[in-house]
């Protein structure tokens, strides 16, 4: 089996390629549409600290403080009406810092825009109170409270659709290759010479005899 035979087999089975590409693209599109929309709300905080210390280690350190039971228990208690436990809470929250700045952001994601905003605001308030209490100074202050987001995050519909199309194309080509690989039919004089080690001295053309 060579590339040429696979290529002509792909041409003969073009309908299979079109079918699986359409199914893959459609599946990718439907997946993006059926996925529950996620909303993100964020609060901005200012911390009184040397800018040189605002780096990845700073984020890691404050993320550990935020995930401590002392803080998460207070937050979950304040939002207990939403029935969110500490594990769910930490999966919703992220901390980011702005480059060369004393400003950092606490973000919260949820399928409900109101819950996302509430969690972001409660988390930033508890975080600020606990850090100031631990440091015994007013080192952290809230700059901007979270607003209820109007639009959800992108569902990546174009990417998922293109990925589905690509997977459909790969699957169709793989199926055609396997069909060709296991097909033992003799289609040409070359096949006879290669498979049976015989020399073909002539071919009888096909005629429509009536």
Describe the structure.
This protein has 210 residues and is an alpha+beta fold. 55% of the residues lie in helices and 13% in strands. It has helices at 3-12, 14-34, 56-66, 69-78, 86-92, 113-135, 157-182, 189-196, and strands at residues 39-47, 93-97, 103-110, 140-144. The chain has a 4-stranded antiparallel beta sheet with strand order 2-3-1-4. The chain is elongated, with a radius of gyration of 31 Å. The model has no long low-confidence stretch (mean pLDDT 81).
Query: What is the radius of gyration computed over CA atoms, rounded to a whole number of angstroms?
Result: 31 Å
**SSE string:** HHEHHHEEHEHH
In percent terms, what proportion of residues is strand? 5-15%
Low-confidence stretches: none
Record field, number of beta strands = 4
Q: Strand order of the main beta sheet, please?
A: 2-3-1-4
Overall geometric form: elongated
Q: Kindly name the structural category.
A: alpha+beta
Q: Roughly what percent helix?
A: 55-70%
Continuous helix count: 8
Global mean pLDDT: 81
Main sheet overview: 4 strands, antiparallel
Measured distance between first and last alpha carbons: 36 Å
């Amino acid at each position: 089996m060579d590339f040429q035979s696979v290529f002509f087999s792909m041409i003969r089975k073009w309908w299979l390629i079109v079918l699986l590409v359409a199914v893959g693209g459609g599946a990718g599109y439907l997946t993006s549409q059926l996925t529950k929309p996620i909303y993100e709300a964020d609060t901005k905080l200012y911390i009184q600290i040397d800018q040189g210390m605002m780096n990845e280690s700073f984020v890691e350190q404050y993320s550990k403080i935020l995930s401590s039971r002392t803080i998460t228990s207070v937050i979950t208690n304040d939002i207990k009406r939403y029935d969110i436990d500490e594990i769910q809470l930490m999966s919703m929250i992220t901390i980011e810092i702005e480059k060369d700045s004393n400003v950092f952001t606490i973000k919260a994601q949820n399928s409900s825009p109101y819950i996302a905003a509430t969690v972001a605001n409660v988390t930033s308030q508890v975080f600020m109170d606990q850090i100031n209490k631990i440091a015994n100074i007013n080192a952290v202050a809230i700059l901007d409270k979270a607003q209820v987001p109007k639009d959800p995050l992108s569902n990546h519909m174009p990417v998922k659709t293109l990925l589905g199309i690509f997977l459909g194309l790969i699957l169709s080509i793989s199926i055609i290759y396997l069909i060709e690989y296991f097909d033992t039919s003799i289609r040409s004089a070359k096949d006879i010479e290669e498979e049976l080690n015989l020399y073909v001295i002539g071919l009888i053309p096909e005629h429509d005899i009536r």
